[in-house]
Amino acid sequence: MSSLETPLVSQVDRRPLLGYLIYLVAATLFAFNGTVSKVQMLHGIPWYRLSQLRVTAAFAVLVLVVLVVNRAALRLHRSEIKRMAVYGILGIATTQALYFLSILRLPVGVSLLFEFTAPIMVALWFRFVMREPVRDRVFGALLLAFLGLAMVAQVWQGFTLDVIGVAAGLGAAAALALYYIEGEKLVSQRDPVSLTMWGFGFAAGFWALILPWWTFPWETLSFTESLGGYGPSLPGWAYATSMVVLGTVLPFALVLQSLRHLRATQASVVGMSEPVIASAIAWVLLGELLTPVQIVGGIVVLAGIVLAETSR
């Protein structure tokens, strides 16, 4: 999911079908990354260290990209520092870390459902805090989200989900909502690529301060495993590389490309496919099977999120 905007493209140049296909590929890569990341954590790498590795490596790649395509954007103005720090630390680092903690303790698809409630939080923020006009459908979205999440948690059985995992998922949603809100302001001041680069940079800097790199547990990447028992065994560094390149940088680039052909609302609706695809991948590769009631609950949650996305 992304709140990034791109330069205006004329209606003649827009090719919506191509945009949908590109965004669907990006959503699939993001979804696949959930399983890839979980495998690494199951082999002993802590969730917070995995988050540190992801944002730092992605920052390094994005620096190279910006250096080539827009070197002037490497300069950060003093007036941007405070807001960029909030964007990077609370928006990116916190979202990533809590998402990893959540998928470690919950099925990947379920974690994403909790995290994807962020657009509802954003709509409520603009309605009640910013006092901006928001359609009343946001209340229907909130109701559907509560109903769907209750079905996913199977509350009539005494809440079957891990409490810490649920709390982390909701925390990731709140951090993602902040990412959207701050990103919406910052993207008017600089291009999306350099904005994301600096966001990842502040996230990487935050982790480096509290978790120095010389204490990183590199031995946790020494495992070898075939993904889900399919294909050849792969070393831990291959999983880490996939997480950064296929699970972060490439899908981000695809999202930006798709937004040349789609409006933000159209793209966000396509993005709702990510929890569905993630659940299917985790079922095949990790054996994470959801009950029929949980599947229906997930559909209800996604319906609520679509309502929220179109309420502003």
Structural class: mainly alpha
Give the overall shape: globular
Domain module tally? 1
Mean of all residue-level pLDDT scores: 89
Strand content: under 5%
Main pleated-sheet profile? 2 strands, antiparallel
Question: Helix proportion of residues, in percent?
Answer: over 70%
Strand and helix order: HHHHHHHHEEHHHH
Structure write-up:
It is a single chain. With 312 residues, the protein is mainly alpha-helical. It is 71% helix and 1% strand. The protein has a two-stranded antiparallel ribbon. Helix 1 packs across helix 10 (264-271) and helix 1 crosses helix 11 (273-286). The longest helix is centred in the first third of the chain and has 28 residues, at 78-105. The protein starts with 15 loop residues before the first helix and ends with a helix.
Provide keyphrases for this structure:
312 residues; mainly alpha; two-stranded antiparallel ribbon; 71% helix; disordered N terminus
Question: What's this entry about, in short?
Answer:
By secondary structure, the protein is mainly alpha-helical. The chain is built from twelve helices and two strands; from the N terminus they run ααααααααββαααα.
Topology:
Elements: H1 16-42, H2 47-69, H3 78-105, H4 108-115, H5 118-128, H6 137-153, H7 163-186, H8 192-210, E1 224-225, E2 234-235, H9 236-258, H10 264-271, H11 273-286, H12 292-309
Antiparallel strand pairs: 1-2
Helix pairs in contact: 1-9, 1-10, 1-11, 2-3, 2-8, 2-9, 3-4, 3-7, 3-8, 4-7, 4-11, 5-7, 5-12, 6-12
